[in-house]
Amino acid sequence: MEKEKLLGWALLTNISDGDSAAGPALRLNKHTVIDALREVQILLLDASQLDRRYKLKLTLSTDKSTAETGASQVSGEKILRYDYSILQKKALDFISKTRKYPKKLQWASFDKANFEDLLSNLRVLNDDMMGFLEAYERKRHFQMQEATFMQILQVNNRMDGLVELLHSLKDTAAEDAKQAHANNLDQRTYDDRLIRLTRFKAVSIAIETQTTQINEPEARSILDKAVTGAELSLAKLTQISPNDDEEQHQRSHGLYDKTPVWVEWRYYEDMDEDEEPPAFIVQRISKLAKLLRDGMKPAEFLVPACLGYVHQKSHCRFGFVYKSMESLGRDLPISLFELLSTVKKPSLTTRVRIAHAVANSIWYLHATNWLHKGLRSDNITFQDRQQIRNATPFLCGFDYSRPSGVGEETEQPSQNSLHEMYRHPETQFDFPRDGRTGFKKVHDIYSLGVIMFEIGVWMPISEILGIDTTKTIKASMVKKVQSDLLRKDNLDLLESEAGDVFAGAVTVCLDGTLAPSKTLQSDEADSQLQLNFGEHVIKNLERISI
């Protein structure tokens, strides 16, 4: 990470392009910068001596897929990479190799201490170098660091590796807290977000694998609360409205232990009173509730505060119980779908803000391998009905169904054609609901593209495509949604309403060109998709100026 900080700094300051390309702060402090870089050189030479002692070599992969990926296209342009992406590839290859040969990392105690001192000194020098960046450059530098970290997080899928990463991040945060730089608040916010992301991924792995036997004290403290039961007492849930038996309402409001709440319902097939729902459904509801109610999950997930879940057997349904915000009172949250149909089109500034918030939340969720699997505009809610212009969108309607495997039980997907319009063609009308080869992140990103299209023109997808929802929607019409949205006349409409940059971000979500080469291994593919999504969706939405 310290190497990436330094490389990012060099890229932003154009230090390799000579004095004329450097910023004013760098030119004024030229000699100070040179002295600092000499100190960095000495530290790196010291570190290289340790590398040689333990024969730790960075070996560039000869996998042809790297070249293929580098030439992949997005909207007619090559996918952008940071100039130091080759070094990132080396670092990831190095991590992979050292996992296979752990004996090479059996440090003598004094060499480990020396190495940690070198890293500490390098961190201080790196932080000092940040003072030569302008404010906008510091913001971009944090974004570059975060993109790099996302790739590191993607390839860490073992509990022990995540715990080690968490220790490292906390040590770094402690060092950063001692510094008194002008950007210290931004640094602490950044450090806290990385810690929360890493912790949450560890929690999600523990919940999914039902891991309980962990001896490491810090990991144990993280998981103890997260993996405990999440079922609430139905008797404490009162004044539920609406609560009739004739219609399967998606959401209700009420009180839980006298606290205002709203409930999101999940129904299962009717059965006799003495029968229980299938065990695999109960297990999935329980696992999802544990993730939703985790109090330490990153705020950027935009998930409302969940208390747990209830089971109402009389209505054959489970309910995720969310705490209502004060601004909501006893009302239900209003969905984006409802806003698109009832509220006058807001300013482009507001529409871009909403689209960016939702896209950003998916970017962070995917970094921890949490897929939504149910993205559509009626699953994006606002808890302030009066101030939509400044209200925060929240994601709900999460699905916890897993990719189907041999012997795995599956759930019948809903037969709502309107919902299917938001789903990727590979997952529409399929049994199991995750499609033939399992639900993938690109499927979430596709659904996000449909939602962003709706936000851009401010109308529901059915209205955009001229589909009459009062009549039966044929499956053939639903299967054409992707190709219809990508028609030139519809893209021209989106561009005229929201601009070419916004339209470009939507297009790459819908047409699948963000997806990496199929020749890459799973971890590498996830890492590359995360980078592509950040570069061509998140970053482009951020640079829209109105």
TrEMBL record:
Q: Tell me, what is one Gene Ontology molecular-function annotation carried by this entry?
A: protein kinase activity
Protein name (Swiss-Prot/TrEMBL): Protein kinase domain-containing protein
The organism that produces this protein has a lineage beginning with: Eukaryota, Fungi, Dikarya, Ascomycota, Pezizomycotina
**Species name:** Cylindrodendrum hubeiense
Q: Where is the Protein kinase domain?
A: 220-546
